[in-house]
Amino acid sequence: MQSILSKYDKAVIEKASKIEMLIFDVDGVLTDGKIIYTNSGDEIKAFNVKDGQIIRFLKEASIRVGVITGRSSALVERRCIELKLDFFHQGAKDKWAVIEGELGSLSAQKVSYIGDDIIDLKALVNSGLGAVPADGMSYVKDHADIITLAKGGEGVVREVADLILASQGKMESIIKQKLG
After folding, report:
1. What is the CATH number of the domain that holds 129?
2. Average pLDDT over all residues of the chain
3. Structural domains of the chain, count
4. Which residues have a Cβ under 8 Å from the Cβ of 139 and sit 6 or more positions away?
5. Mutual orientation of helices 171-179 and 156-167 as an angle, nearest 10°?
6. pLDDT tens for residues 99-136?
7. What's the N-to-C CA distance of the chain in angstroms?
8. Does 80 map to a domain?
9. How far is CA 57 from CA 1, 66, 78, in A?
10. Whole domain around residue 61: which residue ranges?
11. Is 41 left (phi over 0), alpha (psi -120 to 50) or beta?
């Protein structure tokens, strides 16, 4: 899995190798951040199937996966249920407080958090591996361990998940399993 890991320095790979929980924001991470309303008041969001595809493999690797978002949306709830996430929290104003509630006996250094905006800063800096999409706010990127190549809604979660799985030596077996 050298190809996945080649773009990261040793410190990032070391942090990723310890991750047991991956948590991410929705708007600007799982989506491109656009919120589209129809004339009838319905909300439309686009999710990237690549992000959803890797979640099963994270869970099979005993990595808990969850969402914490500042907004509330029936579409987000539907997507989180569809992905069979371990947890999801909507309407969160203090995302780090929500994470602390999910930690249990897990240390913060074993959590990776992906966020793109000012509301994500505390969660980003207190987590063991903080990631920001390529199009995240510049002052948020300043506090990240990694800035993904992908923009929000274009496979950000997948990129971080691949890093975590590869750094833990699990990606190769997933690929072999799929090759048959």
Report:
1. 3.40.50.1000
2. 96
3. 1
4. 118
5. 100
6. 999 999 999 999 999 999 999 999 999 999 999 999 99
7. 18
8. yes
9. 16, 14, 20
10. 9-179
11. left
